[in-house]
Amino acid sequence: MPVTLREGTSDDTEACRAITSAAFTAIAQQHNMHADAIGPAPAAGRSTNTKAHVIVAEIDGRIVGSAGMDERCDIVGVGPITVDPGEQDRGVGRMLIDAVVARTAQTKAPGARLMQDSYHSRSLVLYTKAGFSVREPAVLMQGEALNLQIPGCTLRTGTEADVKDCNLLCESIHGVHRGGEVESAADQERLLVVERDGRITGYSTTVGFFGHSVGETNDDLKALIGGVEAFPGSGFHLPSKNTELFQWCLDNGLRMVRAMTLLSIGLYNEPKGPYLPSINY
To answer: What is the DSSP-derived secondary structure letter of residue 175?
Structure first.
């Protein structure tokens, strides 16, 4: 039977969630890796992200895969893209990736990014063939809360009034801001900001799997990592080229779980300062 693609709806959530869980578990087992809790499968219009777009793949009316796109910001966050283990080797994954690229062009988004499990070489090949470029090696970190304070850095809950300064900080590092995500974090009282001399020098939407962080210096990121009560989800991502911060995390008892790779298509600016990517980018 031919594979067809359509826009997903909230009614597809459970089927997509089951396939996402099965796919990540199967891939991890094939590579003798631990299958971490990835979180919910993409769901169009879910309350925490009213700009989520989902592409669903079907065979004879049965869902066999899906691709999620977070369109809250100018740069689209992609993922997860998963295919039912029993329906692989039929080109479904490539169709979904191509549909993501087409959607990015159709909406005139300047670019799209994603985080890829480095051990899964097959997906890296598929993304590369679809036009994505490797940008940054990263690691997934886990561990208990550090309960550390960094001298000179004040950590507090961010508010809606801080969104503008957070966006300016992100633009100074990445050339673009992630205002949609920052606004969502502020609305849900998840936004954390670091202040030095009364000025915001770092922020995080969550020091965890689904959040991103930006700082002027590594001390700003250390204040965020050291000051949170937990690392939600499966941990947080850290660019492994940031040797100072990576070593600091290891020295303080955090552990590396696996290697990841940041991929992008379209606009990409080399970061001008330290940051922690989310599972999207």
So the answer is: S
State the CATH class of domain 3-109. Answer: alpha beta
CB 23 within 8 A of CB 84: yes
The pLDDT value given to residue 37: 54
Between CA 1 and CA 167 the distance in angstroms is 47
May I ask the CATH architecture of the domain 142-276? 3-Layer(aba) Sandwich (3.40)
Domain spans of the chain? 3-109, 142-276
Between CA 193 and CA 207 the distance in angstroms is: 11
Angle, helices 92-106 vs 121-129, to 10°: value is 40
Query: Which tens digits make up the pLDDT trace of 68-121?
Result: 999 999 999 999 999 999 998 899 999 999 999 999 999 999 999 999 999 999
Residue among 191, 193, 240, 243 at smallest CA distance from 216: 193
